[in-house]
Specification:
Blueprint lengths: L7 E7 L7 H12 L3 E7 L3 H10 L4 E4 L13 E2 L1 H6 L4 E5 L2 E5 L2 H8 L9 E5 L3 H12 L3 E5 L3 H11 L2 E2 L12 E4 L24 E4 L8 H8 L3 E3 L1 H17 L6 H19 L1
Parallel strand pairs: 1-2, 1-3, 4-6, 7-8, 7-10, 8-9, 10-11, 11-12
Antiparallel strand pairs: 3-5, 5-6
Bound molecules: 2'-monophosphoadenosine-5'-diphosphate.
């Protein structure tokens, strides 16, 4: 294999990064679209060191993941309106030595919900962290009726103040009518799969259930929903949507070839199955 000195090396930064599928997502799309770049995982506990390296090496695109999505804001020269509202960024684009922050999680959510009408729907959001904020923002602009539920109720109340909606407690979850159920907590995430944030009797066949956990693609929550014949949306769709948007921001090219998206999904699923062996 020959070394291509013109190939751009993009980064995903986080800590730890052992199970990140971002390099696989990016590298598959780069190859599919003939983009002369590669994505490399760079795990380090010190964000300042990672930022220094991005600047020194003039890295064009950096995907930012846990636990740096909030902390990264202090290093940005400018950012999108979504970053200002959500107070988190998952993408840095470097132009002329300046770091611009974006949040493509909302684009990922929009991609996952592209065939769902949320208007006036009663939507349960479980969790009240950064992922829930992105969800709340999207639900607010989609004019849904948000029902917040979190282990620490105060945090759910703060999000209800900011994005609208009501707050319920875990004990009351089966008493309220729900059209859509969304998990934004890490419950069910690999390698601790098998756990669901909700009891099975909450689900019915009229509902839509979305889990932001994308590995495994079909979580315990989604299995419960399938059993009740609810429609399910995998977090893998959001993961694909947010990653594809990062590449669109970098290249200015629209990525909407269904063949490429399907192939990408297949490759990510195969990789997840490999991890579970
Ligand atoms: P993220 O930015 O990915 O949303 P986060 O800000 O740490 O991550 O938020 C995680 C959310 O999942 C929080 O709402 C957390 O509940 P608390 O506010 O009570 O901490 C919730 N969460 C995490 N682990 C959970 C668990 N085992 N059961 C229920 N909720 C959990």
């Amino acid at each position: 294999m020959s070394l291509d000195i013109n190939r751009k090396a993009n980064r995903v930064i986080g800590y730890p990064l052992i199970h990140s599928q971002s390099p696989l997502l990016h590298n598959t799309v780069y190859e599919g679209m003939g983009i002369n770049a590669m994505m490399i995982a760079n795990a380090h506990s010190e964000l300042s060191a990672l930022i220094q390296s991005i600047k020194t090496l003039s890295i064009e695109l950096t995907a930012v993941t846990m636990p740096f999505k909030e902390l990264v804001l202090q290093y940005l020269d400018d950012c999108s309106s979504e970053v200002k509202i959500l107070k988190t960024a998952n993408t840095i684009i470097q132009r002329d030595g300046q770091l611009y922050g974006y949040n493509t999680d909302v684009d990922g959510i929009a991609f996952a919900f592209s065939s769902v009408d949320l208007h006036e729907k009663r939507v349960l959001v479980i969790g009240a962290g950064g992922a829930a904020r992105a969800m709340g923002y999207f639900l607010k602009i989609s004019k849904a009726k948000i029902i917040w539920m979190n282990r620490t109720p105060n945090k759910a109340m703060a999000l209800a103040d900011e994005f609208g909606g009501e707050v319920i407690f875990y004990d009351n979850v089966s008493d309220v009518g729900l059209d859509i159920i969304i998990n934004t907590t890490p419950v069910g995430l690999y390698p601790n799969g098998g756990q669901s944030p909700l009891p099975h009797y909450v689900f019915n066949e009229k509902q839509i259930v979305f889990d932001m956990v994308y590995n495994p693609a079909i979580t315990a929550l989604l299995k419960q929903a399938q059993k009740a014949q609810a429609k399910i949306i995998s977090g893998l769709d959001m993961f694909i949507g947010q990653g594809v948007k990062q590449i669109e921001l970098l290249t200015g090219r629209k990525i909407d070839d269904p063949l490429l998206i399907n192939e990408l999904k297949k490759i990510l699923l195969q990789h997840q199955r490999g991890l579970c062996l």
